[in-house]
Amino acid sequence: MVIEKRVSKALVLENNTAEDVSRAMIEGGLQKDPFYIFDMDKAYQRVQYFKNMMPRIKIFYAVKSNDSDFMLKLAASLGLGFDCASPGEIHKVLKLKVSPLSIVFAMPTKSPEWMLYARQCGIKHTTFDNLCELNKIKQFWPDAKLLLRIRVHSDSVYDLGKKFGCDFETEAIDLLEEAAALNITVVGVAFHVGSGCSSPDSYVLGLQQVKQLFEHEDKAGRKMKIVDIGGGFLSDKTDRIDKVSKLVNNAIEELFPDPEVQVIAEPGRYLCDNSFTLYCNINTVRPVQVGDSSINMLYLNDGVFGCLRYNEPWHTVKRFRVHSEGEQLKPTVLWGPTCHPIDRVLDNLVIMLPACTIYDWLVFPSRGAYSMTMASRFSTLPEPHIRNVISQELFNILKDSKVLGLDDFLEQNIATPLPPTLPSIIVHSKILQTNYTLAV
Ligand code: PLP
Prior knowledge:
Layout: E1 10-13, H1 18-27, E2 35-39, H2 40-53, E3 57-62, H3 69-77, E4 81-84, H4 87-94, E5 103-105, H5 112-121, E6 125-128, H6 131-140, E7 145-151, E8 156-158, H7 172-181, E9 185-192, E10 195-197, H8 201-219, E11 226-228, H9 238-255, E12 262-265, H10 269-272, E13 276-290, E14 293-300, E15 318-319, E16 329-335, E17 344-345, E18 351-354, E19 361-364, E20 385-391, H11 392-398
Helix pairs in contact: 2-3, 8-9
């Protein structure tokens, strides 16, 4: 038996919902392994909402947040651009016949090999934030079109400014001048306010700084044309994006009224997070006494070394089986399937869940972003399969796209089990003699 990496077909839903599919799979007893349901309609709605709220902005989807087949196919068939951060990501996107001009290699520090790879693939745009990178670009990718990445701090869950972005006050102008002296073209400025940003004003601050750099280049007789406002858009509540978009739209209108200036964004989390739900099974239930309280320890079949690595403040979990009236909630700790004690899901929280058995499933909503792409190889655990589901309506919209050919879809029963992830059984006719064998 071959371990299939991920299911690459999608189920077209005629009269069912994504929830119906998970219910059929779980209640039919068809699943044992953890699995995802990818509700493509939800991701589509996010793309449309983003476009409607910020019509001037072109979306370059951040592949790192979720590079699953159908997420990429959906993005490509909707004509989005892509933010790629490695040759592997570039390869995946180009395989979908996306133009290299629709890819920004948004990684400010690249090896010479990465630069040569991108250049050979026909990619033109990349970011930089330091002199060492500029000198490498001069040598290995002199015809690149650069975006200077500046640092913009914000209230965010992940502050990317610690790692990337030059200082606006003390470094940005020097780097622009250095690039000009090296005869390298800088076509724009990029920033990223940090992933999971809860201070929308930070985008405005970034845009104001970009404007000053545009003015500097104008005065020097050089013209920049691209403003890249990065990602960071929070996905937990919709009103957050409403607030950001109002501020961003006003700032763009005021600072960059010239329609020739292209404004792009690289959202990841916002587009992919809420459309992926992870379903995990329980291997073992172990009640323990801690002081006066009895705590239920549940050992799951996925954990922090798999798709439950990060536990941002908005993450939740519930039992799949409906909570019956009068059923008490119990203090519960969730452990992943590996031997490591840091493999504890939802950080160090003791959460309240109804009692569970080994026949129960837990549901982790909004686990699309930075989950499967961050799963590790630890203990050789398999990746959860993804069950891609799409409504008939959306399927009709997408079916003519060059990316999503009809062949990619498989009409199937909603209760079709996913292939098992256990490796094949090996029985050797001759056994190697080792020095140590166990007593039987
Ligand atoms: N662009 C760049 C350069 C990034 O580093 C990231 C995330 O690390 C993103 C876009 C996507 O950010 P988010 O998922 O927060 O929208």
